[in-house]
Write a structure and sequence with these properties.
single chain, 153 residues, alpha+beta, seven-stranded antiparallel β-sheet, two-stranded antiparallel ribbon, 2 helices, 9 strands, 15% helix, 37% strand
Length: 153
Amino acid sequence: MTDASWTVGGIVTDGLVGSTPVVSPGGTRSLTFHFHEFLTDAVDDYRVRYQDLREYIEWTAGDPVRTWVSDGGDPSYRERVPAGASFDTFVVAVDPGADVEAEGFWGVVTGGSDDSRPPASERTLSLDVFVLAPLDEYADDEAVETAFKTEVM
């Protein structure tokens, strides 16, 4: 079976809708992911994964994330993760599946929308992600935070 999945912040999606993103640090990409019950083994698995990723979008209300590019072209961000969130950073690894010809990257979730329509067996989320760096340049989100996060804008 072909692995067309994408993993975002450790959450496996069933695929990317549209063209693969061009990784360009300092740019924002709007990525649309789909979740489908027939592409998983567990009946509710796609709903759980969909809700987990949707939570990032819900918590971006009120602009808790600010992004910018310095005069030298370096991307930076500042975040304030709300107390009720189940995650501790808006930084995510965006990693294509084994059979997807695309480059993974580190980014910061800045917004998005729930584009789901019936039938209930399929869900779609659009995620706005500010690109920080190619995925292979940093080992984890803590290293990304050290390199790009600032408390001063």
